[in-house]
Structure formats: C-alpha cells, structure tokens
Amino acid sequence: MRRQRKITIADLSRVVGMAAQNLSAILQGKKDSRASTFESLAAAMEAEWVLVPKERLMEVRQILEGKGSGPDRAARSSLDVFLSHHE
Question: Where do the HTH cro/C1-type domain residues begin and end (predicted)?
Fold first, then answer.
C-alpha cells in the first residue's frame, strides 16, 4: 500500500514519529511492533487496520478484489415479490 500511494519510508516514518530504520524492519517483518504502531501506519496511509477472523479471510479477500459483490442469493426474486402481491 505504501508503494501504491507513493509514500517513502522516510515520509511515513516522519508522520508516525519513528526512525526510518525501525519502520523498515517492522515492514519487512524483522521486528515486532505494537498494534498502535499499525494503527498509526494505516492512518498515515488513509487506511484502516483491522483483524479478520481466518474463517472469513477468503470472503474479505474476494470483496477487496471486487469478486465478492453480486446478487444477494438469499433475497426474494422480483417474480416472488410479484406473485406474493397477487395471490
């Protein structure tokens, strides 16, 4: 996301108040960090940091890829609605 938004590590580190070297290590998974750090990083990139239950991860990924939208299969069809009003 940082690359997509064309934000350098130096710029991001200034916004979140962290040394660029430490931020780089966190982003590369070489150093652990607190949840508040991830919240700050997300806010700096105009994003939201969220936890997704593993059983819902595939659904969330599909939605983010634009593949999760479509007809509501549980909704009544227009034919069902029409017939219910004319019974």
Answer: 1-52
